[in-house]
Write a structure and sequence with these properties.
Layout: E1 4-9, H1 11-14, H2 21-40, E2 44-49, H3 52-65, H4 75-100, E3 107-109, E4 113-116, E5 128-134, H5 136-145, E6 150-153, E7 159-163, E8 168-171, H6 174-182, E9 186-188, E10 195-200, E11 203-206, H7 213-218
Parallel strand pairs: 1-2, 3-9, 4-10
Antiparallel strand pairs: 4-8, 5-7, 6-7, 10-11
């Protein structure tokens, strides 16, 4: 019986300088070459990933093209969208490498919701950087176009947008992920830290935030 290995890929490891789909897919293909080694060793692999650069770029694209008839999507939905796109790329890369090595293994992405507290102090103190680095002038222009955004200087490397990053309480789809693991399937879950949701009148409702993938992966 092999080990259960949780691998949390950073969003910046997937997107460095080239934000094109082709470049990110190539980065994940190179990563898959290493991840499949765990499967070859008989280990059960569980994959999560960040999405800071990807979701930030998506939000900027959405804000730039927003119209009354085609408005931009909220941050929780953008997290779900990047879960889907990165999960698709990761599945595809893993499947290619598994096929090359003659391994019969299924990889599946779970669009994952992660519950947070509506009273988490992070909602009034945004600190999580997302999106690309910008010059002061670029950040000022983005702020002027999107007054609700918050930008901060990031360690001398430029300016980035920051958003709330509440702590995870519960991974809603835990049973689904465990079922996949028990069946020997490789799940890709809590992408981008998961879609932040709170319990509201007995139902789950999305919140504008990004959860740290490492904290979510621990759950």
């Amino acid at each position: 019986m092999g080990r259960k290995i949780v691998v949390a890929l950073g969003g910046n490891a997937i997107l460095s300088k080239d934000a094109s789909a082709k470049a990110q897919q190539q980065a994940l293909l190179e990563t898959a070459e290493h991840l499949v080694k765990f499967i070859e060793n008989g280990d059960q692999l569980i994959i999560s990933h960040g999405n800071g650069p990807q979701v930030g770029n998506l939000l900027l694209q959405q804000a730039g093209g927003s119209t009354p008839d085609n408005p931009e999507m909220p941050l929780d939905t953008a997290v779900a969208m990047t879960q889907g796109s990165i999960g698709y790329w990761m599945q595809n890369a893993m499947n290619r490498v598994l096929k090359e090595k003659g391994l019969d293994k299924t990889v599946a992405t779970v669009v994952t919701q992660v519950e947070v507290s509506p009273d988490d102090p992070a909602f009034t103190n945004p600190t999580k950087p997302i999106g690309p680095f910008m010059s002061k002038e670029e950040a000022d222009e983005a702020k002027a176009a999107n007054p609700e955004f918050t930008f901060v200087e990031d360690a001398g490397r430029g300016y980035r947008r920051v958003v709330p990053s509440p702590k995870p309480i519960n991974v809603v789809e835990t049973k689904a992920v465990n079922t996949l693991v028990d069946a020997g399937i490789v799940p890709i879950s809590v992408g981008g830290g998961g879609i932040p949701v709170v319990t509201e009148n007995g139902n789950l409702a999305g919140r504008e935030a990004v959860i740290d993938k490492d904290f979510a992966s621990e759950n």
